[in-house]
């Protein structure tokens, strides 16, 4: 069955949960896209058709997002990596190119470190970086959790809160994609899952920071947004870009790319750039 985002399918996990995924195109290696915190397959809607011109590309809904089953387990980094592994097993390929945005970066890096033989290359799109103090600030975490609780409460009353940045990004999508994305992003179920992922974020990043896990010797491209549209982002954007550069600068197959017209939302602001960097690893 097809949708505006591609051909639909489901991967059944060992505990019976199902993960919904969409795919476009044909060919190998298969590219699998991992979304950022609080995001589903829809954030890749502008990138997928461009990658699909050369090979098969798959995006999926993490548990609790989009059309995937919810997960009663704590939604920490380890659990998300485990679910990604089951999805890749279900897709049936030997090796993949993995691309991850924001939180998707630590997820695919953690998977690659634990399963080096399954990964042919990585593209990290303005990824969250475990060495950045910002992710551990208690004041920011407390404020964010409180705001998320308020938004969930309003959604339960039928009031949909759509932040300005989300409205801006959705305006870049075709109408049908925009409607589907908005309906999912403002649902109580998806808002609750976003809060669950955020609640476990700092702990997961700390474990990744302390693990010393090494990436396999494959091409790794880090894409950084160059712009800082908010006051908060201006405080940490230079350190984030520096961390992205540091991750790849000493790797023989490492590459750092600056998205000059983007802030954090590179897959929507510069989908052509993201697709181009993915396709460089496809060969």
From TrEMBL:
Residues passing through the membrane, by range: none
AB hydrolase-1 domain: residues covered: 29-127
Organism: Streptosporangium jomthongense
InterPro entries: AB_hydrolase_1, AB_hydrolase_fold, AB_hydrolase_sf, Epox_hydrolase-like
Molecular function GO labels: hydrolase activity
Keyword Repeat tagged: no
Origin superkingdom: Bacteria
Protein name per UniProt: Alpha/beta fold hydrolase
UniProt keyword annotations, A-Z: Hydrolase
